[in-house]
Write a structure and sequence with these properties.
single chain; 3 domains; alpha+beta; 17% helix; 7-stranded antiparallel β-sheet; Pdz3 Domain; Thrombin, subunit H; 6-stranded antiparallel β-barrel
């Protein structure tokens, strides 16, 4: 007798077929949407396109991974962090020993041959005698101090070799809410988050910025006491993204471009445009003028790179191919150039667009 499938059997076969088909379609859709689930790949929780509705059912594993990353950063960065003191030369151990309250500030090792970066607040007298105490309590005399007046940072040289070095990252890649680690010593390691990337406008006169002084800072969700002065802020890769000065951090992009000058010629030179301006993307109630760009607050002084070329009330929209906006203001863009560079400024003046060429001082 030939086999005759029952209705129930046919329903089972159809259910299995459509179940398999729906599974294949789901994989195709997920792949097309670039959504990575655990059985396909790894989830990047830092990806801004990640669906915010994803629920972590086992949060302990995430915490363990973060703890592992923090420990790795600690192991890699602590050898490159130094404490800075006023020098002592006594042969009496009770006098020569440094106490915690004598720390002037912190710093980090920039090069293996002994260049160290700290802040003017820590090294408040550049002609004083200072010592840096680093990994395994090794002491180094600091000399050849160079101040970067634009950022308030100080570069100092030690006579040494094969020092552990702190790698530099890029502060331009940072995002609000990103987790960072502030490292200033074996007893000073803080896990925090970026709460703000911007300026500190505490009074009206603070709204006026100077093109030659990059003033944007990194602010963290935790307040940083005075004993964090000169500490390094690093990302989870262990890369320096800022150095703490006055309770906030100077972004690494503000000083990484002058390092070659420091190493080659032991001097610091920065490009100068000589403009005082308002960052329209960072102030309210000026929408009639514009929502981004640099509004020139005063007539440029004689001797500046744009004297006679730029006028009070002009709005600078671009420099070369760099648009001025909330992510990069005038001083941020100027920081990309060197003295002697020829630049083109796209300017809005009295409702008219024009181009102005200038050579940076």
């Amino acid at each position: 007798m030939p086999f005759k499938p029952s209705n129930a059997f046919l329903l089972i076969i159809l259910a299995m077929f459509f179940g398999a088909l729906s599974g294949i379609l789901a994989v195709i859709i997920i792949g097309a949407g670039n959504l990575k689930l655990p059985f396909i790949g790894q989830i990047n929780y830092a990806d801004p396109n990640l669906d915010s509705r994803i629920v972590i059912e086992q949060p302990r594993s995430v915490v363990v991974e973060q703890d592992t990353q923090i420990k790795r950063v600690e192991n890699d960065l602590l050898p490159a962090v130094v404490n800075i003191y006023s020098a002592k030369n006594s042969a009496d151990p009770l006098i020569a020993a440094y106490a915690d309250h004598e720390i002037l500030g912190r710093g980090f090792v920039l090069t293996a041959d002994g260049w160290i970066v700290s802040t003017k607040s820590a090294l408040n007298n550049l002609k004083g005698n200072f010592s840096a105490v680093g990994y395994q309590n090794k002491k180094y005399a600091l000399s050849g101090l160079l101040e970067d007046k634009a950022t308030g940072l100080v570069f100092a040289k030690t006579i040494s070799a094969d020092l552990p070095v702190a790698p530099l990252g890029k502060s331009a890649d940072l995002q609000l809410g990103q987790t960072v680690i502030v490292v200033s010593g074996s007893d000073k390691l803080l896990v925090s988050h970026i709460a703000k990337i911007g300026y500190n406008f505490s009074q009206n006169k603070d709204l006026v910025l100077n093109s030659d002084y990059p003033e944007k800072r990194l602010y963290f969700s935790d307040s940083l006491a005075a004993d964090y002065e000169g500490a390094v802020a690093v990302n989870f890769k262990g890369e320096v993204i800022g150095i703490v000065s006055g309770g906030s951090a100077v972004p690494v992009d503000y000083f990484s471009n002058i390092i070659n000058d420091v190493l080659k010629s032991q001097k610091i030179t920065r490009a100068s445009l000589g403009l005082d301006y308002l960052d329209l993307s960072r102030v309210d109630n000026l929408i009639e003028i514009g929502d981004k760009g640099a509004y020139v607050a005063y007539e440029p002084l004689k001797g500046s790179a744009v004297y006679g070329l730029i006028k009070k009330g002009d709005v600078i929209k671009k420099i070369n191919d760099y648009e001025l906006n909330a992510y990069q203001g005038l001083s941020d863009v100027l920081n990309k150039f060197s003295s002697g560079h020829r630049i083109e400024l796209a300017v809005r003046r009295a409702g008219q667009d024009l181009s102005v060429a200038a050579v940076l001082k």
